[in-house]
Structures are given as structure tokens and as C-alpha cells.
Design brief:
By secondary structure, the chain is an alpha+beta fold. The chain has helices spanning 10-21, 27-44, 81-88; strands at residues 50-55, 58-62, 76-80, 100-102.
Length: 115
């Protein structure tokens, strides 16, 4: 069974966001914020029909619907961590971000921002 991501404590996420906003995040900050926001996404939209890949830190499946078991899922969303963090926090609009999204239901903008 896959490891389920868990959100950070609010004060821990706030401290990480402060460092990100100051322009001085560490790799660990980016990793922690990425996983935190992906955990919020999977809580908000549980399921297995869309795979969200935030390289190099994590990938999750979300949104109820058709489930894939082998190979590439029917819908994939991929972006780097700084883009994901900005989009998930509402600092960057989905339509303005550099995102690779393919397949039905790969537009996650109705679920955002998460934090």
C-alpha cells in the first residue's frame, strides 16, 4: 500500500511559507511544502483518476473516477515544486503557470488554492 502524505502543523507550514516568500527556501522547505500541499489536495479530492507529479519530491493520485492500475494514468499533471507551491497557495494562477497537464479532468484549478 502506498504511503499517505500527512499535512504539516499550521505553524510549521507558516514558517516554511515565510522562508519561501522571503526568497530563501531550502530544498527541505520545498519538499515539505510540496508534500503538505499534496496532502491537502488528496484530502480535498480523494480518488485515483488523476496523478499529480511534483518532481522530484512526490506524486499522488486524486479525484474520484476511473482508476488506473498499470502504466500511465488517463490524466497526469506535472510541474516543478516552486510552481506547485505558488499555484496551490494561490500566488500564481493555474492558467499562467508552466504546467504539463494531459487527459480528462487534469485541470485542477477548481480545487485551488489549497492554503
Amino acid at each position: 500500500m502506498a504511503h499517505r502524505l500527512k499535512p504539516l502543523a499550521p505553524e510549521e507550514f507558516a514558517a516554511i511559507c515565510h522562508r519561501i516568500d522571503a526568497g530563501d527556501p531550502s530544498r527541505d522547505d520545498l519538499k515539505a511544502a510540496t508534500k503538505h500541499l499534496l496532502a491537502l489536495l488528496t484530502e480535498k479530492a480523494p480518488g485515483n483518476s488523476v496523478e499529480v507529479r511534483i518532481l522530484p519530491f512526490a506524486a499522488v493520485q486524486c479525484l474520484a473516477g476511473a482508476r488506473h492500475t498499470r502504466g500511465t494514468p488517463p490524466a497526469v499533471v506535472e510541474m516543478d515544486a516552486p510552481t506547485w507551491i505558488a499555484v496551490a497557495r494561490g500566488r500564481l494562477a493555474w492558467k499562467d503557470a508552466k504546467i504539463s497537464a494531459s487527459g480528462e479532468r487534469s485541470d485542477l484549478s477548481p480545487l485551488l488554492p489549497l492554503a
